[in-house]
Design brief:
With 472 residues, this protein is an alpha/beta fold. It is built from 16 helices and eleven strands. The chain starts with a helix and ends in a 5-residue tail after the last helix. Guanosine-5'-diphosphate (GDP) binds next to helix 2.
């Protein structure tokens, strides 16, 4: 009887060990400037610092609050072909004499942490008394712009051209639009294609997209890799652009014609650039965080804010895992938790933080039920990775007591006290844009004595949602 019990116990123990040493791939994305690099640096920093003797940093993260998080260390990353996330460089920049924000995400990168913890309940805690378990956490950082290419998987070249020209009113705001339009109009789609000619027009299209995103403040741009071509720079696979609607009328196109070559390059881009990202990386993600910087989009104005809302909803298409979804036709997605987090909420006063969450929910409303229904739980939060401001109160003769934020303004490094303004709770309407009285300010990173001193807003709540169940 005793032997039988021992055997059972050993079996249970083995099973527990196997389930205990778990592995999780957490992907972090967001459009350029959303705060990905700052966020990943901040959570790695916090996790590396936590121990049972130093559990106050993340009070809402249960494994930490219960003093069960024993130690976290960085270990060798699993994918040798992926760049490593530059944690040390980023931290050193934040800790410099004049603190700097680390450079933004431009490509995919990863980093692996081994989180050693004491299980709280279940078989594991029962049998392993003082023994620990380990969660291997891979954090993968990639540009959200890559997800904006997803609809291309379901569009022919013609349909794609039509979809691009639907944004023509926005394009007209760019000084580069006329030059591009003139170059495309001069093409005869049935004429024989030449590499040089297509490269010249594609360069003009790239200039237009870069200006739209970097100068005019828009977000939607396809193909996404034209913004950050990396090792594809100059390759014919990126040398395509949309022909004008009136150039797409013919019924038949001769092989080798400009139309046929552009169509072929478009298909190759979809097959060799867009699809592989989903097969090789996205298919392996267990959990996904999407960071959203609402304040920059509000500062930029109505057209840009609406464009960002559209971009965000285009991003949500990658999480529609229903049976008829584009992705389900390619593989079985396994993301079971999806979090949209409004970032940098330290830029606004505390009384406005509920508003930014309401606004984010309103922005996501068109596609809100997309993933929930397919067994993925979706949550929204408002966080700040590295708090660059302090909250305060001032008395004003006209308005009475007023909440403010204080911090070092990034543009001139002046220490300022300001009321950045109200964040709308709903998608702003016409009158809001006419009367709006806000200006959200970029702050420099805080000057701290050591890596332990960085403060955050609700990172612990966020970690509890994304990792809490795996550390039980
Ligand atoms: P990425 O392009 O998504 O990688 O974004 P970054 O991490 O480079 O962040 C873009 C900018 O947002 C930074 O340079 C900072 O100016 C600002 N930022 C990021 N996180 C925070 C934060 O928690 N608080 C504040 N106040 N600013 C932040």
């Amino acid at each position: 009887m005793n032997r039988h019990w021992q055997q059972l116990k050993n079996k249970a123990l083995e099973l527990s060990y196997r389930t205990a040493n778990q592995h999780l791939r957490l992907a972090v994305t967001g459009l350029a400037g959303a705060g990905k690099t700052a966020f990943i640096t901040a959570i790695i920093n916090k996790l590396l610092l936590v121990s049972p003797n130093n559990s106050k940093q993340l009070p809402l993260f249960s494994v930490c609050r219960d003093q069960r998080l024993l130690a976290t260390k960085r270990v060798l990353q699993p994918d040798l072909q992926l760049a490593s996330f530059g944690y040390e460089t980023a931290l050193n920049q934040l800790l410099a004499e004049t603190p700097q924000w680390p450079p933004s995400t431009t490509n995919i990168s990863e980093l692996r942490l081994a989180i050693k913890f004491r299980p709280a309940q279940g078989l594991l805690a029962k049998f392993l008394d003082d023994t620990s378990a380990t969660l291997l956490l891979d954090i993968v950082d990639y540009p959200g712009e890559w997800l904006l290419d997803l609809p291309m998987l379901g569009l022919s070249y013609q349909q794609w051209c039509d979809s691009v020209w639907a944004s023509i009113d926005n394009f007209r705001l760019s000084p580069y639009f006329e030059a591009f339009e003139a170059k495309v109009s001069a093409l005869l789609p049935d004429a024989e294609a030449s590499d040089e000619q297509l490269a010249m027009v594609a360069a003009s299209y790239q200039q237009l997209l870069l200006d739209m995103v970097q100068q005019q403040g828009f977000y939607l741009a396809q193909p996404g890799r034209l913004l950050l071509p990396g090792d594809l720079a100059g390759a014919p696979i990126l040398s395509f652009f949309p022909l004008l609607p009136q150039q797409l009328m013919a019924e038949k196109w001769v092989s080798g014609s400009i139309y046929r070559v552009l169509e072929h390059r478009y298909r190759e881009y979809v097959a060799k650039v867009v699809k592989p990202f989903y097969y090789d990386y996205f298919a392996g993600f267990d959990r996904q965080l999407v960071l959203v910087d609402c304040f920059t989009a509000l500062n930029r104005g109505k057209a840009q804010f609406e464009d960002m809302t559209r971009a965000l909803n285009a991003i949500t298409q990658s999480f529609r895992f229903g049976n008829s979804s584009l992705l389900r036709r390619l593989f079985a997605p396994k993301i079971d938790k999806l979090l949209f987090a409004a970032s940098k909420v330290d830029q606004i006063t505390r009384d406005q933080q509920g508003n930014v969450l309401a606004l984010l929910n309103a922005m996501l409303a068109p596609g809100r039920n997309f993933a929930d229904s397919a067994g993925c739980s979706v949550e929204t939060m408002a966080v700040s990775a590295i708090r660059a401001t302090r909250p305060g109160m001032v008395s004003d003769n006209e308005y009475g007591e007023q909440e403010v934020v204080t911090g070092t303004r990034l543009s001139d490094r002046q220490y300022v006290t300001l009321y950045p303004g109200q964040v709308p709770r709903h998608l702003p309407d016409e009158t809001f844009w006419q009367q709006q009285g806000f200006h959200f300010c970029d702050f420099a990173p805080p000057k701290v004595d050591s890596a332990e001193d960085f403060e955050h807003v609700r990172l612990d709540h966020l970690l509890e949602f994304l990792l809490g169940d795996k550390l039980q």
